[in-house]
Structures are given as C-alpha cells and as structure tokens.
Amino acid sequence: MTAALFKDAMAAFPSGITIVTTVDDEGRWWGFTATSFCSVSMDPPLVLVCLARTAECHPVFTRAPRWVVHVIRPEHADLALRFATRGADKFAAAGFRADEHGLPVLGNACVTLDCTAHQRLDGGDHTILLGRVEHTRLGDAEPAVYFRRRFHTLTSSDRP
User: Fold this and answer.
1) Is residue 100 part of a domain?
2) Is Oxidoreductase there in the keyword field (predicted)?
3) Is the pTM of this model over 0.90?
C-alpha cells in the first residue's frame, strides 16, 4: 500500500464538494474546500468535515465556535479550486455575505448548513470537525460531484 495508490483509490469514490467557512476573533474570514463530508447523526443533527492539519486555516477552525458548510453547485468549481489553494484570496468577488454571526455565507449554494462546534477529533493528518447543525437552507440547483480529481454534474440519466 502506497500513499499514491491510496489517494487514487479515494479519488475513485465520487463525492459532493463543500466549501466550509468561518470567521476569526478579529473578524477575518477563513475557508477551505472539503470532499470529506457526511452526516453523522439525526438526533442531534450532526455533520462532519475533515480539515488537513497543514491548512493555513487549521488553527482558526480548531478554535472556531461556529462554521458554515456549503454544498456547491457545478458553476462553483473554480471557487472550490480557489478555496483549495494555499495563499489564494479566497473571498474576493466570490459572492459571500456576512450572516448574523459575521460568518461568510455563499447565498446560492445547493445546501447551506450553519453549524456550532460539537467536537474535534484526531484524524491522523487531518482534524475531524464535528458540527451540530443549527440551521439549514436548501437551494433548488443540483450539486457538483467530484470524481477522479475532476468536477462532474448529475444528469437526468444518472437518476432513477
């Protein structure tokens, strides 16, 4: 088992793409792209997202009391790449606005989940952020799908 083979195997699993955002104590916005995202519990409503320990925003998210998970649309693919790029100006002309807590929210995401920190767990070279979903907004667009390191869209033939 090599790291490259493991990465290729994980890339062969199609997933949705999320952009996760928060704000630090000084009011600066932070965010990252994650494909490691899933629901954990219905009662209480919990989701998890995984963040690399090497990410610039890692220290902020390990202290943040709240964050927002956005399930993105296919037209947000460039934005997802920007949020996955170290040192990029992630929020410039990206369509985010501040919510009532000052957190950046992408208004036209497929799904937006407002989370409070429930638990943070060791996940090897990642931290698992477990969030309690406090508020959910549903859009009507279909989500982008990430498979074999490329963005894809759902088509009507993909559905039953």
Assistant:
1) yes
2) yes
3) yes
